[in-house]
Specification:
The protein is α+β, with helices and mostly antiparallel strands and 133 residues long. The protein is 35% helix and 32% strand.
Length: 133
């Protein structure tokens, strides 16, 4: 695990970039946002003790959002599953926090998916499922 300092306004990563690291904020503040067309949507403001970018350790997909510093920020950078595992073993309180936060994020994603899908009929959903086989 390494550490890095980013000045206010600096991007840590941008949407669609390939980057396999997750970050823990040691000091500072980071904005997570996405852009759809010309519209920018703030997803979260992260502060000391928060983490972000963890999905990059488990997926080789491009970033789905951007991360930019709102203040001078010091980050711990975890660049592999092994580094994350070692960090979690040495920091059990952070492990519990991470599981809780990830479960909350998953629940919010599920709620959004449910809301999006509620407008579709069962026939449309069944047809979509058959088409993917």
């Amino acid at each position: 695990m390494s550490k890095a300092v980013f000045p206010t306004g600096k991007f840590i990563f941008k949407e669609n970039e390939l980057n396999n690291a997750m970050y823990i904020i040691l000091k500072g503040k980071v904005e997570i946002f996405l852009t759809v067309g010309k519209s920018v949507t703030r997803l979260a403001i992260m502060e000391e003790g928060d983490f972000f970018g963890e999905m990059a350790l488990f997926s080789s997909r491009p970033r789905s959002a951007s991360a930019r510093c709102l203040a001078d920020t010091e980050l711990a950078i975890i660049e592999s599953k092994q580094q994350l595992q070692n960090f979690l073993l040495k920091n059990p309180k952070f492990s519990a926090k991470m599981v809780s936060i990830m479960a909350d994020r998953l629940a919010k994603t599920n709620d959004l998916l449910t809301e999006t899908m509620s407008g579709k009929s069962a026939v449309e959903l069944e047809y979509s499922a058959q088409g993917s086989r």
